[in-house]
Design a protein that fits this description.
Elements (H helix, E strand, L loop, with lengths): L8 H4 L13 H7 L5 H14 L3 H7 L5 H11 L17 H4 L7 H13 L8 E7 L6 H13 L5 E5 L7 H4 L8 H4 L10 E2 L6 E4 L8 H6 L2 H12 L2 E5 L8 H9 L1 E7 L5 H13 L3 E8 L2
Parallel strand pairs: 1-5, 1-6, 2-4, 2-5, 6-7
Antiparallel strand pairs: 3-4
GO cellular component, one term: plasma membrane
Keywords: ATP-binding, Kinase, Nucleotide-binding, Receptor, Transferase, Tyrosine-protein kinase
GO molecular function: ATP binding; protein tyrosine kinase activity
Length: 298
């Protein structure tokens, strides 16, 4: 399977205005997508000089790309980034990466809009938001992944952190190695070396959990987590944190308290009113700002 190299747009444009467009030529997009080599781009440019046609039309005429390839490249150029499933390894469950206009993504797109209008657009610095749930298997991790992609598609410099040492999933969704990650950062490892930029979604970086620590509750309860979050908030417009469930341990409360904000994921027919009330009271006791409750119906 052909893959492309990461495109660290956010890291190269850390001072760019939130949501500002970053122009990329069609040839660059096709090269980063693994569709054209440097030699092929040079051949297209030489032919262009002779006949004066557009780059994409010339590449099609030379049989180097298809019309669909060009259409996808144009979507990327105009900020409508989605992945080509046959070329990239991101899980098909991350629907937003492939079909952001899918009807199943509408509730998350609405959530993104609500967060931007009511909360995030009024914050000059990057904000951290933990995604929590009362129980396991409520779809929190998958929702975190899709929501992160949707923010990146708005040209927001987005970081997704997997803080669920109990059952990490983000490295699986984004086909990443999980030897180093958040556990490394909490032990002083340079953060920039722990970020994985997702090819084709250049505004999205993911920090997996890394090697599972023997003491996750104590590790996430230390002051180092707050230091890490303050550092990444300076470089990203939004930081989304996937936490473990609250039913068996207290890590989610520690992470939410450091983030300052949380979204509670509730699965239809799965969460009890009593467990949600207990979770709400605990989050409020930790002085966490509950931005909202999201019902997961899948």
């Amino acid at each position: 399977m052909k893959t492309s190299n990461p495109i660290p747009i956010a890291s190269e444009n850390a001072s760019a205005q939130r949501g500002a467009a970053v122009y990329r030529p069609i040839g660059t997009i096709l090269k980063d997508g693994g569709l054209l080599s440097v030699d092929a781009i040079r051949a297209v440019c030489e032919t262009q000089q002779l006949d004066g046609t557009l780059f994409g039309a010339t590449a099609i005429a030379l049989g180097m790309i298809s019309e669909n390839d060009l259409a996808e490249a144009l979507r990327h150029q105009f900020g409508c980034c989605r992945l080509l499933g046959e070329r990239l390894n991101v899980s098909a469950e991350v629907v937003a990466a492939y079909r952001p206009d899918d009807a199943n993504m509408r509730p998350l797109r609405d959530l993104r809009g609500m967060l931007m209008l009511r909360h995030l657009n009024h914050c000059p610095d990057g904000q951290a938001i933990a995604l929590t749930s009362a129980h396991r298997c409520e779809g929190r991790s998958l929702m975190s992944a899709n929501l992160a992609v949707l923010f990146a598609q708005m040209n927001w410099r987005t970081l997704l952190i997997d803080a669920d040492f109990r059952s990490p999933r983000q490295h699986e969704y984004f086909a990443l190695q999980n030897r180093r990650g958040l556990s490394s950062a909490l032990n002083g490892y340079p953060i920039a070396e722990l970020l994985s930029w997702i090819p084709g979604l250049g505004f999205l970086a993911v920090m997996p959990t890394g090697a599972p620590p023997p003491n996750p509750e104590e590790l996430l309860g230390r002051s180092m987590l707050a230091i890490v979050l303050e550092q990444v908030k300076r470089d990203f417009d939004i930081v989304l944190i996937d936490t473990p469930s609250c039913e068996l341990n207290h890590e989610a409360y520690s992470v939410s308290a450091c983030a300052g904000n949380t979204i509670v994921v509730v699965k239809n027919g799965h969460s009890s009113v009593a467990s949600l009330k207990k979770m709400r009271d605990s989050l409020e006791n930790c002085q966490v700002n509950i931005l909202g409750y999201v019902l997961n119906e899948f």
